[in-house]
Structure formats: structure tokens, C-alpha cells
Amino acid sequence: MKPFFILLSSRVIRLFANITKLLCYGFHFLFPKKRFVLPAEAAPLISNKKPSTIPRIIWQTNYTNRVTLPVYLNYLFNRLMAPGFAYRFMVTEARAEFIKANFSDEIFANYSRIQIGAAQADFWRLLVLQKYGGVYLDIDAHVVWPLGYIVRPEFDELYIRTKRGEISNYFIASKPENPHLAQMIDLVLRNIRECRLTNVYELTGPGVFNKVLDINTVNTTYYRYTCNQGSFTNEYFQYVDKPQGKWTREQEKIDIIRKD
Question: Are 21 and 232 in contact (CB under 8 A)?
Fold first, then answer.
């Protein structure tokens, strides 16, 4: 019966989120310049000292920490659904500073060749989870069940499985120093060096996960019972302050990797 209740929860949340999204059009029509600030760090809402292989930290990134109301509501909802988790957020500049401070000159040099923010974020999420562990969520992603029940204390990794039967990277849970993450980091580095691929999806995104991971052997969870995207927000609200728009359009205009 549990999957039924989770699926019901997912649908109720989606309905509620879509209603708030519609209302936000009116809000930003009246207050077009109003933005809300995502914190770089936030402590758990509730203390949880029970041991967990995957650290109880949510990681997110975005091109700016000043976001529209729908994106901020998405953030607040995840905080409520994960009260025992700390929160960490990095903008573009902070991502680069983190990688420079914690990884080799080679990794930082290759990261610095990436010219599209989404591809940078793809690489960063692997590196930050390899260093500290935790749960990565895309800025428009929200869990559909309390995160502490999704990411169990005994898990050392958890990946999301899509409707098409593939692994995506908008939700990743991992312990630090994960051999699978290490393999994916190596593949991203090879893709950057070879500079042959022209699609973010294959170069740094889910394509990397599906080349490295065997969906039949790694720990996965179906997206409908775990995490959805685009319920609270959408492309307009996410990129209203970014003239370049979404990465799908950016990669048509500029090379993903700068040719040295």
C-alpha cells in the first residue's frame, strides 16, 4: 500500500504546486522586480543525531541566489520535507572557488573550460558529493515524500530512475568518496579533454550516469515515488533574469567546452 500513498502524495503536491505557480504569475505581474534570497547555508530544522551513511545535507546550485517566488516556494517546500537535513547552496562563482580549493589543478583547469552553466553544475554536483556526500537536487526539483524516508540511513547511494528506464541526475544521493562518482568524474574529464561531444546531456549530464552505472545493479528509485521537477516553477520563472536562457538554447549558440 505504501507506493499508493506516495503516488497519491505526489499528485496532491503537484496539484498544489501548480496552483501556486499560477498565482505567482499574478504576484510577479504586480511586483516584477521582487526577488527572494536563497541562503548559502541553513541548519536542519530538526536535530537528527542518528547515524547515516549518506550525510543529511541538501545541495543545490543556480546562476543566482536571488530567485523568483516560485523557485523560493520550491526551496521552502523541500526544507519542510527534509527537516533533519542541512542546506547548502552555491552560485556560479562559489562553485569555482570550491573546486579550486578542494581538487587538483587539472580538475579545476578542465572545469574552467566549460562555458555553459548547466554543464558546470553537472560536473560540480559530482565533485561536491564526492567530497562531502549528501543529496543533490536541481533547483526546480522537489521530493514527494519525506526525504529521511527516501534516503535510508543504511544507503550509501541512491539514483533516480525515469519513465524511460534511464538514470537521471536531477536527484543524486551519495556517501563521500563513492567509487561510482569517481568513475563518472573521470568520464566527464575525458569528455572535456576530447572535446568531441556537442550536447550537455551526453558530455556532463545523465548520459555520463547511464554509461557508467548499471541500472540493474545500483540502488535506484522510481521518480514518481521520489522527486519531481517543474511543479512549483518553470523555465520562465527560473531564467527570467538570464538572457541566455536554458542550456538547451545556450549550446546551440556557443561551444560547451572552450577550445584552448
Answer: yes
CA–chain centroid gap for 108, Å, is: 20
Q: Provide φ and ψ at 82, rounded to 5°.
A: -140, 60
State residue 118 phi and psi, 5-degree precision: -65, -40
- 2-253: CATH architecture: Alpha-Beta Complex (3.90)
Q: Are 195 and 259 in contact (CB under 8 A)?
A: yes
pTM over 0.90: yes
Q: What are the tens digits of pLDDT across the range 174-231?
A: 999 999 999 999 999 999 999 999 999 999 999 999 999 999 999 999 999 999 999 9
How, if at all, do strands 41-42 and 86-90 pair?
antiparallel
CB 208 within 8 Å of CB 188:
yes
Cα–Cα distances (Å) from 213 to 121, 134, 158, 170, 192, in that order, read 20, 19, 11, 15, 19
Neighbouring CB atoms inside 10 A of 30's CB total 8
- Please say whether the beta carbons of 95 and 121 come within 8 A: yes
> Closest by alpha carbon to 130, among 184, 208, 200?
184
